From TrEMBL:
Gene3D superfamilies: SET domain, Tetratricopeptide repeat domain. This is SET domain-containing protein. SUPFAM superfamilies: SET domain, TPR-like. It comes from the Eukaryota. Residues 174-360 form the SET domain.
């Protein structure tokens, strides 16, 4: 039993902690609550009357709950969750603790466990008319459903011109597995047939850094500062969160990847608790190598960023997408919405097919792609590269076309020459797509110029056929979409052809570029933006 002075001291500690908590001095309030909790627990271990034990237990529960709230404000989520669980041990239906735990779990994207907490809190009469709580409850229901079903619709936000902040999304992992890859190390594979445009992953960056673009490019100093800030954010996070750190350590450092373990995709689900076994200091050299190999920038050929102004540039790390290998004939694209990366199929995929991004521009000749692959430290051996290596070795005419481009020769004549050569060499449809993708700059300039089309239009294939073969070979691309869209507009103004059918084709291509996350009115908005690019 506590003496009167002891009780008074306990009372003082509690008042002090509460005051600091109200003043939002989180660190100090955590300290004060910790003292109170230790003392209170001690008193509870002594013989007590029933009523004072009840009083002490009530105070202990509130103190643990408030300390959890303070810790969560400092993003110390694991420790905050422990406090919530301790508080719920004292009172399993404590409303504030259930709400606090639900909010923390929601921040950690552990939607179904969060939903369970909110459901329990809903039984308390305090839930009625509590707008703050009801807001979290609605949000949690929405996210839990999105992360289970993958049903995402950004149409309103897009067609209203991206108002306010980017929408918050839920993480989602579709029908995929991580397996050994024939390309290199591990890769991500689909386990079911998936059609073009379908959503495959929504992943939140574990850390992101953005910088304003001065002019079109980022100067080297800004890039360095940005990279340093990004690395600092990752280091801070791995120090705080062991699960994130364990997952980062599974990523490649490049080079020889044959011996790497193949992690279970379930480890990357937000609900997974993690192994919690690595508590040694972080190996900084390894961490930097991992960031070097796996970080992605928003500005990339296989990415589109949805936001109002494209005057900033971001770098981030998204864990599961880091297992996606490169191909010059890729089958997925990514869409950036705030800190979320959305991966969707850019063409129809068969079960067991490996997902591949283009790390660098697939719409350029082999020689340029080889140069870019050196920067990435890889040597691509995809079907397209193998085919082009063979053909370039034997056919000097292709070299002549490349030289023609450098010399600024008439682009239409070069397209004509390439098409004639491909007929002579009896190149099959798929491979024609590879070659046309490699010389896309020639095709786009030719089809985009009235003068060129007057001269060469009758002697080269129609744009439709070229678009079909290029997208079949390398998946859809916004530059291809742009040319096709412009052509359709011209045709519509001249009212030749079947406008509906042609517009349907533009929408199909747009779904392959942006994903099916949009309804037609939003797609129209994206097509406008694509044209203005
Ligand atoms: C983002 S990781 C991709 C996943 C990686 N394969 C793994 O096992 O973790 C990038 C690294 O994968 C390898 N890689 C990706 N695409 C490749 C390709 N087409 N050819 C050779 N290596 C590739 C390279 O080592 C590259 O540094």
């Amino acid at each position: 039993m506590a003496t009167a002075p002891e009780e008074e001291y306990l009372q003082q500690l509690r008042s002090r902690a509460t005051e600091l908590f109200i003043r939002e001095e989180w660190n100090h309030s955590i300290e004060a609550y910790s003292q109170f909790i230790t003392l209170c627990t001690h008193h509870l271990s002594l013989p007590q009357s029933h009523s004072s034990s009840l009083k002490l237990r009530k105070s202990l529960c509130i103190a643990l709950c408030n300390r959890a709230e303070a810790k969560s404000r400092l993003r110390e989520f694991n420790s905050a969750l422990q406090d919530c669980d301790d508080a719920l041990q004292v009172d399993g239906s404590h409303f504030k603790t259930l709400v606090c735990k639900g909010k923390i779990l929601l921040s950690l994207s552990r939607y179904s466990t969060a939903l369970h907490c909110f459901k329990m809190a809903l039984l308390d009469p305090q839930a009625n008319g509590n707008d703050d709580f009801l807001g979290f409850w609605q949000k949690c229901r929405k996210f839990e459903s999105l992360s289970r079903t993958g049903f995402l619709d950004l149409s309103d936000w897009v067609s209203n011109g991206f108002p306010g902040k980017a929408p918050e999304l839920a993480e989602y992992i579709g029908d995929v597995q991580i397996r050994k890859s024939e390309i290199s190390g591990r890769g991500v594979f689909v386990t079911k047939d998936i059609d073009a445009g379908s959503l495959i992953l929504i992943t939140k960056a574990i850390a992101m850094e953005r910088s304003l673009l001065a002019g079109k490019d980022l100067c080297e100093d800004t890039q360095l500062v940005m990279w340093k800030n990004f690395v600092d954010k990752v280091i801070e996070l791995v120090r705080k969160c062991h699960k994130t750190r364990d997952l980062i350590e599974k990523l490649s450092i490049g080079g020889k990847e044959d011996e790497l373990d193949v992690p279970d995709v379930d480890l990357f689900r937000p609900e997974s608790i993690g192994e919690m076994n690595s508590r040694e200091e972080i190996d900084m050299v390894k961490l930097l190598a991992i960031l070097d190999v796996n970080s992605l920038t928003e500005e990339a050929v296989s990415a589109n960023v949805l936001r109002k102004n494209n005057d900033c540039y971001g770098v981030g790390l998204w864990l599961l997408p880091s297992f996606i290998n490169h191909s010059c004939s890729p089958n997925v694209r990514r869409l950036h919405v705030g800190d979320y990366l959305i991966v969707h199929a850019s063409r129809d995929l068969k079960a067991d097919e490996e997902l591949t991004f283009a790390y660098y521009d697939p719409l350029c000749p082999l020689s340029k792609r080889r140069d870019m692959s050196v920067t990435w430290g890889i040597q691509c051996r995809c079907k397209r590269c193998k085919f082009e290596v063979d053909i370039l070795y034997y056919k000097k005419e292709l070299k002549e076309i490349e030289i023609g481009i450098e010399k600024g020769m008439d682009v239409g004549s070069l397209v004509y020459k390439l098409e004639e050569q491909m007929k002579r060499w009896k190149i099959r449809a798929k491979e024609k797509g590879y070659m046309r993708a490699s010389f896309w700059s020639l095709y786009s300039e030719t089809y985009g110029s009235e003068k060129c089309m007057k001269k060469w239009g009758r002697r080269i294939p129609i744009l439709d056929a070229v678009v079909d073969s290029v997208t079949d070979a390398v998946g859809s691309d916004h530059r291809v979409l742009k040319i096709l869209n412009e052509e359709m507009k011209k045709k519509a103004s001249g009212s030749s052809g079947d406008g509906n059918l042609e517009m349907e084709k533009v929408f199909r291509l747009a779904r392959e570029v942006y994903g099916k996350v949009m309804k037609k009115h939003a797609m129209r908005k994206l097509l406008e933006l694509c044209n203005a690019d």
